[in-house]
Amino acid sequence: MIKIYKKAVLPKRFMASAVASGIKKTGKLDLALFYSLGLAKAACKFTANKIQAAPIKLNKRYLKSNKYFQAIIANSGNANCFNGRFGLSDAQETTRELARNLNINKQAILVASTGIIGRRLPLLKIKQAIPQLVKNMSREGIRQAKRAIMTTDTFSKEITLKFKIRNKIVTICAIAKGSGMIAPHMATMLCFIFTDASITQGALNKALKIAVDKSFNCITVDGCMSTNDSVILLANGASGNNTVDTNKYFSLFRGALSRTCLELAKMIVKDGEGASKFIQIKVGKAKSFSEAKRIALSIANSNLFKTAIYGEDPNFGRVVAAVGASGIDVREKDLKVKVSPLNKKEINVDVSINRGNASAIVYTSDLTPEYIKINAKYN
Amino acid sequence: MIKIYKKAVLPKRFMASAVASGIKKTGKLDLALFYSLGLAKAACKFTANKIQAAPIKLNKRYLKSNKYFQAIIANSGNANCFNGRFGLSDAQETTRELARNLNINKQAILVASTGIIGRRLPLLKIKQAIPQLVKNMSREGIRQAKRAIMTTDTFSKEITLKFKIRNKIVTICAIAKGSGMIAPHMATMLCFIFTDASITQGALNKALKIAVDKSFNCITVDGCMSTNDSVILLANGASGNNTVDTNKYFSLFRGALSRTCLELAKMIVKDGEGASKFIQIKVGKAKSFSEAKRIALSIANSNLFKTAIYGEDPNFGRVVAAVGASGIDVREKDLKVKVSPLNKKEINVDVSINRGNASAIVYTSDLTPEYIKINAKYN
Questions:
Q1: What is the mean pLDDT of chain B?
Q2: A342 touches chain B (CB under 8 A)
Q3: Is B26 an active-site residue?
Q4: pLDDT of residue A273
Q5: Euclidean distance between the first and final Cα of chain A, in Å?
Q6: pLDDT digits (tens, 9 = 90+) for A97-156
Q7: Same domain, yes or no: A218 and A94
């Protein structure tokens, strides 16, 4: 039995905080800290974009040289990406300063940034804000922290799952931000997941991979892949459950984690920039999951399809054209397309291609004048 | 010396005509005929979409079984695609009826359709209009014919080139229609090219392939690939020039044909649905043309890039993200991006990746609220 709460409630021995450090000129919260009182294992997934932001490069380094982690520091308003030789050292200096304040090893800190690409991180502002950030830490700090990672998001994405492993209650809590540049292999998307489960590193990695593949890697808002996408999962073992490994209790933990990621992924799509409709595209009777997903994404990323949904114009020819454009050899007589009534907020597109037994579901939003308005000016 | 005229003037022994057959409910011209008084060789390029419209299937059949052609019949308002078992027989019946009226073999007729997908072609209307279409044929008929193939186009795309092979004047004349669903491997794009050059079949095929690769296959309006794209080239040899083969006079003919296609391709982009700006994206210092093109297309199809250009917002981070999203292993320190001033109608994006000596140029338009308005309702 998994209990699901639509609010972020941190698992045992996690804390969080946020401040307005001045990275965002609006004076809004822009710097968040997540902290585990004990050492935690980490599992991460980063963007497949070949140009990667400095925080991702630094995380990969730390993940290689270190096994246990205690904190994540994340900022919004600046992507710390493609800004020359300072990017990496600025990220590193951030962890150094935070480590000093937390009295931990700097390599036990993971970093994340989201915002505009190509500008130097205002390092001084961040360093000046860190003492306050550390001082503010509390169990309730997640309420501010979830807002501090937002950019064009109109609502916070958060969820908490509770379930039992033998007689111990395990909690998974996650927050995320969207909401443009959302495409498979992630997006300008940050997601932080915290659990007090006791779990082996192998099981943690495997569960996260499975969960991300069918959630964050199955959503697209605009087909644009970001340089900063990160999913960071910390597991501190504080619940004292029998340890999950790849055999024992794995399907239970994996199921809960997958559900966590899928719910957040759907929230990201629902808050897609300018989105007026939530669209679920299912491709069935495919030879493989990846074939089904490729077709579903070809539809989901078709501007013509997305504008037709916005206009409530049942132009199913655009679905057909997108299926054919995917490059998969679908025979015309085997192709079946069903679209639910378009005057609703949630639209279901069902495609069947009579090639096998696999299927995939992809989530997307419509393309609206509001998307263009949001993105024509962005600073 | 090639002379270029911005108007369609048919080469020797070609005629054309158009009628309003009633396929379009607006009463506008919707059926066009192009006719060569003598037998002509044909070279064609069709969409790479796996779902292909009936006219394309029929053309492929006729091109296999037949060597010489005399006519093209094209309609707008209905794509004759994904409409079940009638599609192919309707296309065939159209050629049969036209063949009867022209007193030629039906297999000497090529067909093209553009418009909405999934509806049956109004065959009776077409058959009833064919006698008038044949009766109307004239050298000046191209003026109506070029309008009869238009859908959402706001202006006709036409060009004529004249050049000499030895002492004979050779003419290439071409018309095209865009203007949404425009992506590499062509678009809802029809292009008909007529030349009175005498040329071998091998040289004709080769010249068209080269011309299309760097023109119609290098443009994108919305990244959507159509089911109906067709480039059909007829060469009737009426100019009496020394025959072009793959050695003799080839570069001259190829150059003129490439120029023809490139000029039309640019016009299609300039008339892209809702376009307010014309964008040229050059990727240089790549390992190969295809690598350069892949990166250029990744930029050209990025909705975030296209909206930034529309908003005149110099957000070059979106170019960087799109380069990385292409999957090509560009090193950050090797990547240079230059964007010309955004307050102009024509924008140049220059990307250099320091991997080799190849380059590619891709043309696209911006993404505007008007694109969404046009495509939210389309019948």
A1: 92
A2: no
A3: no
A4: 78
A5: 45
A6: 999 999 999 999 999 999 888 899 999 999 999 999 999 999 999 999 999 999 888 899
A7: yes
CATH number at residue B366: 3.10.20.340
Which residues of chain A neighbour B369 with C-beta distances below 8 Å?
A: 369, 372-373
| CB within 8 Å of chain A, chain B residues 167-196 | 180-181, 183
**Structural domains in chain A (count):** 2
Which amino acid type is present at position B329? D
Provide the β-strand partners of residue B78.
B114, B116
B239 and B369 fall within a common domain: no
Q: Specify whether B265 is located in the same domain as B289.
A: no
- Is the pLDDT at B377 greater than 90, yes or no? no
Nearest beta carbon to residue B324 from set A227, A321, A368: A227
pLDDT value, residue A181: 55
- Contact map slice: A 201-260 vs B, CB within 8 A: 222-227
Could you list the beta-strand ranges (E) of chain B. Answer: 3-5, 14-19, 31-46, 69-78, 109-116, 157-165, 168-177, 190-195, 219-220, 230-235, 278-286, 336-339, 346-352, 358-365
What is the complex's ipTM, to 2 decimals? Answer: 0.80
The predicted pLDDT at position B179 comes to 66
Interface contact B50-A315, CB threshold 8 A: no
Q: Which of B248, B270, B292 is at the close of a domain?
A: B270
CA distance B323 to chain A (A): 8
Instruction: Assign 3-class secondary structure to A212-259.
Output: HHCCHHHEECCCCCCCCCEEEEEECCCCCCCCECCCCCHHHHHHHHHH
Testing the interface with B: which of A307, A323, A328 to mutate, by most B Cβ within 10 A?
A: A307
- What tokens were used for A168? 């111990």
Question: Closest residue of B to A369, CA-based?
Answer: B369
Q: Are residues B305 and B371 in the same domain?
A: yes
Interface of B with A in 282-321 (CB under 8 A): 301-304, 307-308, 310-313, 315-318, 320-321
pLDDT for position B14: 98
A197 and A86 in a common domain: yes
Cβ distance A224 to B375 less than 8 Å, yes or no, reads no
Q: Structure tokens of A138?
A: 């509390």
Domain of B204 in residue numbering reads as 3-270
Give the global pTM: 0.84
Task: Summarize pLDDT for A326-350 with one digit per residue, the tens.
Answer: 889 999 899 999 999 999 999 999 9
Check whether residue A194 and residue A311 sit in a common domain: no
Q: How confident is the model at residue B223 (pLDDT cuts 50, 70, 90)?
A: low
